[in-house]
Amino acid sequence: MATSAAPRGAQTGNACAIRDLTVVYRVEGKEYPAVREVDLDVVAGEITAVIGESGSGKTTLAMAMLNAVQPPGRIASGSIEYPEVGDVLTLHGRALQRVRGDYVSMVFQTSQNSLNPLTRIGAQVMDLARSHGHRDKRAVLKEAAALCRQMSLDPDRVLTAYQHELSGGMRQRVGIMLALVLGPRLVLLDEPTTALDVLSQSEVLQILRDLQRERQFSALLITHDMGVVAELADRVAVMYAGRVVERGRTPLVLTNPQHPYTRSLIQSIPRLTGDLDEVRPLPGLPPSLTTIPRQGCVFRDRCRYHPAIADTQEPAMQSTEPDHWFACHLGGKLDD
Amino acid sequence: MGYNARRGPTGSLEVAAVRGFLFRVARRLVAALVMIWAVATFTFFLIRLMPGDPVLAKMVELEQTGMPEEQAKAQVSSMYGFIPHDPLPVQYVHYLWQLCHFDLGVSIAYSGQPVTTIIWSALPYTLGLVLTGIIVTFIFGVIGGVFAAIKRDSWIGGSLSIVGSILHGVPQFMVAVLLVYFLAALHPIFPIGAPYDITISPGLNLHFLSNVAWHAVLPIAAFVISGFGFWALAMKGSVVTTLGDDFILASELRGIKPSIRFRYIARNAFLPLFTYLAIAIGYSFGGAIFIEKIFDYPGLGNLLNNSLASYDYPVMQAAFLMITVAVIISNIVAEVLYTFIDPRIRTGIS
């Protein structure tokens, strides 16, 4: 690979195929699933969003995609296939280190703290190039400078700066630069705008959209913000208590939600031009890791419908239209 | 491209940084002079509050040989460089005036010897002891601490931490006494009581230097054994904290290779220890007072002990002052070095 940073052009197929993924955490000697039997594809060249409340397993899912689930967590079963790479869960050591950054990279929620405070940004780019066996480090540095310019950062200033000399929004953009500089096929965006002020948020979203269009990388966008999903994502997967409860093309899911949870999420957003009384908050709290029901529907306790069958049987994934799947006993017949 | 990723931009920013750096060093030096003056003043008055009067004793001794009082007074004054029984403020001003000319007066116990000569002959031994002790302790402690942090889940890491805690709890003079008892008295493996064999003539040759080093083994060992625990525990804590930092996990997830990641961890974990180093050097000069006494090693600490016993005010003052100056200088050096290893301080001037 020379610089591997040029746009790869439109890709077809999946950039990532997750099958039957279960990740468990050990709490007081017992293992509880934080992600359970998840199937998910990231379609090449598209942005797939994963939306859910805190504790729904979204970040655990992203960590699993880097095969980096931290103890006391453990990947209990499943596979995560990348084309040309294979199942990332079977990799370790040097091979795993190479895949991280080269094939799949991550933009962190806390990008403010994701940089080495004692090393200049440019030197950290070089460390990245060296770690991935790039002979031509100047080319990587040039690519970093180009990315900076694209995000309206002055590369001469940013690459020679230390982390503490940059603002929060600038650091987030540096985080994006570091994630893209090696030209990965898949980028994991872990709540990339959560830690930013509102102005920086919209800037970063704009930047991500532009970069994705130009470079055609595939992305998994983790967020709890429906607005971000609507703005950026081609597809969306809704997670609740470690399970994907609904997934499909973003317009389909947002305009015609089939799962009561998705519907509640959308109804709980206040409209800028609407009546505040129309906003319906979702009552109750999501279960914590140790209180997720082991059988039946995980959402039933907060469900307005709560059919009797949900207490014992887990709903299977079903579909009423192409590119739109959900797991609910009611089969999409929600009367309101 | 107009920049160098390792060195940073050149030009006005760098000039401003250098100017700011020099300004801060200058400010530290002024503060140091004020501190030295304060300590000099404090010790001057403190020492004179002690009971007993060696000058009066000397005068009485001379008068008993039949010397008239006036003559005895004149002789004592020429011996010690000051008129005894002048009012304190006059003595104080006189002392400061001499100090400004690097004149520390004349010893009382070693009649007539200038204090500067005595100090200069003792200072190298203490400096050698303290600096070697600190460096060796630091190296062992840091390595032990890194090891204890990385292996913290195994028995090796656990026992390293326990050993560190125990050593940290044992007082320095205890270690020194045990070393003397076992390795010098019971089994006379190491020599004590002199900085080098009497049969060897001092000079800058390997034979003499190795002999000096051999004689310094036990006192330095006392420093190392009693100091190791602190450094090991501090370094362990620092490494564990750094390992939990977000950017270390981030660098792993970005696919930074282990050798580079180790460098990230080491440098970041090392920084806080550097602050302790300056403080530890100060403590070590204090510790030298006990250690030199126990090993009868002719450094500043021993000098201070002896001068206390013989009411040798000028030497006492000078020894206190030297220890103070050493602590202040080591603090300044540590701060200057710190600006080189931590960019947040280097550039945080504007």
Detailed description of the structure:
The complex is a heterodimer of chains A (336) and B (350). Chain A has 336 residues and is of the alpha/beta class. Chain A has a domain at 14-103 and 186-192 and 218-327: 3-Layer(aba) Sandwich (Rossmann fold). Chain A has ten helices and twelve strands. With 350 residues, chain B is mainly α. Chain B contains 13 helices and no strands. In chain B, helix 5 packs antiparallel against helix 6 and helix 7 packs across helix 10. The chains are: A alpha/beta (336), B mainly alpha (350). At the A-B interface, helix 2, helix 3, helix 4 and helix 5 of A face helix 9 and helix 10 of B.
Number of strands of chain B: 0
Quaternary organization: heterodimer
Rounded Rg of chain B = 26 Å
CATH topology of the domain at 14-103 and 186-192 and 218-327 in chain A: Rossmann fold
Radius of gyration of chain A: 21 Å
Q: Can you count the helices of chain A?
A: 10
Mean pLDDT of chain B: 82
> Whole-Å distance between the termini of chain A?
55 Å
In short:
By secondary structure, chain A is an alpha/beta fold. In chain A, 29% of the residues lie in helices and 24% in strands. Chain B is mostly helical.
Topology (elements, then pairings):
The complex is a heterodimer of chains A (336) and B (350).
Chain A: E1 14-27, E2 30-43, E3 47-51, H1 58-65, E4 73-82, E5 86-87, H2 93-102, E6 104-107, H3 121-131, H4 137-150, H5 155-158, H6 168-180, E7 186-190, H7 198-215, E8 218-223, H8 226-232, E9 235-240, E10 243-249, H9 250-255, H10 260-267, E11 317-321, E12 324-327
Parallel strand pairs in A: 3-8, 3-9, 6-7, 7-8
Antiparallel strand pairs in A: 1-2, 1-4, 4-5, 9-10, 10-12, 11-12
Helix pairs in contact in A: 3-4, 6-7
Chain B: H1 12-48, H2 54-64, H3 69-80, H4 88-100, H5 115-150, H6 155-169, H7 172-186, H8 206-243, H9 246-253, H10 258-295, H11 300-309, H12 313-341, H13 343-346
Helix pairs in contact in B: 1-12, 2-3, 5-6, 5-8, 5-10, 5-12, 6-8, 7-8, 7-10, 8-10, 10-11, 10-12, 11-12
